[in-house]
Amino acid sequence: MVKPKSKFTKARDGVKKTPLKDATAEQLQQLFKTVYIKYVVTLEDQLQEDKAHLLLKQQTIQILQEDIKFKNQKLRQIEVFQKKLAKRFADLKANYQKEINHERAECLKINKDVMAKNDDCIKKNTELLKSHNEITRAYNGLHSMGKFAEAEGIDITKHNKQLPENMEFYQSHELMESGKVKHVYGIKKKKKKKNGEGN
Question: In this prediction, what percent of the chain has a pLDDT beyond 90?
Answer without folding.
Answer: 20
